[in-house]
Amino acid sequence: MNFILMSTGTASSPDLITDIETAEPALYRVLLLNDDYTPMDFVVYVLKNFFGHTDLAAQKIMLDVHKKGAGVCGVYSFEIAETKAALVNSFSKKNKHPLKCIIEEETD
Length: 108
What we know:
The structure is a single chain. Helix content is 40%, strand content 29%. It contains three helices and five strands. The model has no long low-confidence stretch (mean pLDDT 90).
């Protein structure tokens, strides 16, 4: 970030001109990983309650997790993705399920 200070003739009121280049923040996918122990209805519950999916969308993502090994829950900024993954991992652990949630940077 470059700042150019322009004087207006008085030392107490300079004009500040900014030359700012901004980039779009990176986005991150939140993924649920398949395991052989977590019930499918628990996965659907997580998708609906932590990610706001409809029942139909949650069922589709749950089947992706089951058949493909992972399913995309959503795409968010880093802080939101990290928070959602941590909340899901904590919730799964408290409910004695090995379900894991990870994030990865969106490359598309």
